[in-house]
């Protein structure tokens, strides 16, 4: 969850005045307080999907006068960026803002031109990495650090980009030559996967390589009733997209036999138990996923990658779709406690939609991922 004060979290549960801003920002700024030109908001939202290559996208409706007639106009799709934030204005007129990120303008559209409202779609900065396919292979020699590889491929697209990791990327060294062929993003994503990390652009406009939050430690409570925020909820049980085993294979340095690891659901109390009948007499069956990467060069790396992918897909095959009073600090993979009249759930958020106008709920999809005990071999 993005950092906010307790006062902010308390205000979400009470009547409050919401504020939202969209700012056209020059110069590829980062951080939560950029400078630029405010854009009038007539409607829109920010959708964050933790499973997508480009995690966050913006849909914005604004006034007709902002239709771009020149390639330098703020809504022209030639690299212009929009910074979005939502906040709460307190009684003393102080506003606590929550950044929702930086978005590259993709497409402005206008029905009933020239007097109709302008509809803008935009994507976070990862879109440029996805688009920026390599025109020639890039080779990284034995001894190249992970930090050097990420910097070379990202700074080539965004020279002023900031990269943030929750581990020392200079301590991870390639023990064989590596080649990035065409797909810049896929190469970086696979590197992050090999480190058992997620790779995305966060609310500060920074490229991050980090672990997901602990799914068993909820950061926010979504409840109905007095001081509650839950508006409505639907729920579904499905096997689709659920694996209870992951086989990860790679290439060992100067070895003919590739490294290999298997991670499985090893909890007899789990409904997706790998080893046959669980303690409740139920058999989910063996449903493995297979993953292969040139970056897995040690058994330890293969085990870590397999365990991460299993965590990402494992858990009760149970999802919730919910609408709630917006807490704009929530992000994909944040664990939340959902309290209803008949049950108490701890789920991780998969997608989160934050509206930019008052009176609309936050919508989200979730998945139960708390019952995880992983066996490795």
TrEMBL record:
The DUF5047 domain covers 45-169
Cross-referenced Pfam families = DUF5047 (PF16466)
The molecule here is called DUF5047 domain-containing protein
Q: Which organism is it from?
A: Jiangella asiatica
The major lineage groups are:
Bacteria, Bacillati, Actinomycetota, Actinomycetes, Jiangellales
């Amino acid at each position: 969850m993005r950092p906010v004060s307790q006062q902010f979290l308390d205000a979400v549960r009470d009547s409050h005045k919401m504020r939202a801003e969209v700012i056209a920002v020059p110069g590829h700024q980062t951080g939560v307080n950029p400078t630029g030109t405010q854009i009038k908001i007539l409607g829109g939202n920010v959708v964050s999907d933790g499973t997508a290559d480009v995690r966050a996208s913006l849909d914005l409706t604004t006034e007709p006068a902002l239709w771009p007639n020149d390639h330098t106009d703020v809504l022209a799709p030639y690299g212009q960026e929009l910074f979005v934030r939502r906040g709460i204005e307190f009684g003393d007129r102080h506003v606590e803002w929550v950044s929702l990120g930086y978005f590259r303008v993709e497409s402005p559209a206008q029905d009933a031109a020239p007097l109709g409202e302008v509809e803008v779609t935009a994507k976070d900065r990862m879109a440029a990495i996805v688009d920026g396919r390599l025109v020639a292979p890039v080779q990284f020699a034995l001894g190249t650090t992970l930090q050097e590889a990420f910097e070379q491929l990202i700074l080539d697209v965004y020279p002023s980009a900031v990269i943030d990791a929750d581990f020392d990327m200079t301590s991870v060294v390639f023990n064989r030559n590596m080649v990035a062929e065409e797909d810049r993003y896929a190469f970086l994503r696979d590197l992050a996967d090999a480190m058992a990390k997620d790779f995305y652009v966060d609310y500060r406009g920074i490229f991050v390589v980090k672990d997901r939050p602990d799914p068993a430690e909820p950061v926010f409570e979504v409840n109905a009733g007095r001081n509650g925020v839950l508006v409505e909820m639907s729920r579904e049980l499905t096997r689709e997209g659920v694996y209870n085993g992951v086989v990860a294979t790679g290439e060992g340095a100067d070895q003919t036999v590739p490294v290999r690891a298997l991670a499985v659901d090893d909890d007899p109390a789990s409904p997706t138990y790998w080893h046959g009948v669980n303690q409740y007499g139920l058999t989910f069956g063996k449903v493995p996923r297979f993953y292969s990467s040139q970056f897995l060069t040690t058994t330890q790396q293969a085990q870590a990658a397999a365990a991460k992918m299993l965590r990402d897909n494992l858990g009760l095959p149970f999802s919730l779709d919910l609408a709630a009073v917006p807490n704009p600090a929530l992000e994909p993979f944040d664990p939340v406690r959902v309290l209803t009249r008949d049950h108490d759930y701890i789920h991780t958020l998969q997608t989160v939609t934050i509206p930019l106008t008052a009176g609309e709920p936050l919508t989200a999809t979730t998945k139960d991922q708390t019952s995880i005990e992983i066996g490795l071999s």
